[in-house]
Amino acid sequence: MQNGTNSTVTGPASGRANDIQHQLAGLGYSAAATTTVLTSQADTTLTYHGADRRGDALAVAKALGLPKSAVRESSSVSGLQLVIGNDWRAGTAYPKTSGNDKPADKAPASADALNGESKGCMQVNPDYTF
User: Fold this and answer.
1) Angstrom distance (rounded) from CA 45 to CA 48
2) I need a surface site. Which of 39, 59, 115, 130 has the fewest CB within 10 A?
3) Which of 70, 71, 3 is nearest to 43 (CA)?
4) Nearest to 94 by CA among 26, 45, 36, 127
5) CB 120 within 8 Å of CB 85
6) Strand, helix or coil at 10?
């Protein structure tokens, strides 16, 4: 786990990796460790190495409330690596995104946009319908 909040504008949010490490330990992820290397990263990411670690990464992301888009495969890490970015400078719960963002696994609220009878679409010739 690494603190990636070293912003040139607002400076680092100290102790972020430790805060999240304690949160994970409270959730049963006692093997989580931190590094003292401070970096600058806009978004929080959880990277994993190898397809066999994807399930672990998704479980940790779910426990922290991270979106699936924050989970990425990388050959440059071993195991799992969480970098807390500038999008999560405070608190132990990942900040919720705006209402415009929908989870990738959620069905659309309405299928109207997928209906061929909506305005702007060509009308179907009744001679060719069943």
Assistant:
1) 10
2) 130
3) 70
4) 45
5) no
6) coil
The model's pTM is: 0.71
One-letter amino acid for residue 25 of the chain? A
Strands 80-84, 2-3: pairing kind: parallel
- Beta strand residue intervals within 1-123, DSSP E: 2-3, 45-48, 71-73, 80-84
Nearest 5°: the CA angle 46, 43, 81 is 20
Tokens 């963002």 belong to residue = 101
Beta bridge partners of 83: 2, 45
Amino acid, single-letter form, for residue 93: A
Q: What is the pLDDT of residues 73-122, one digit of tens each?
A: 999 998 899 999 999 999 888 987 654 455 555 665 665 555 555 556 66
Cα separation of 111 and 68, whole Å? 24
**Class of residue 82 by CB neighbours under 10 A (exposed 0-12, middle 13-18, buried 19+):** buried
Q: How far apart, in whole angstroms, are the C-alpha atoms of residue 117 and residue 54?
A: 41
Candidates 67, 25, 28, 15; CA nearest to 46 is 67
Alpha helix positions (H), 32-117:
54-64
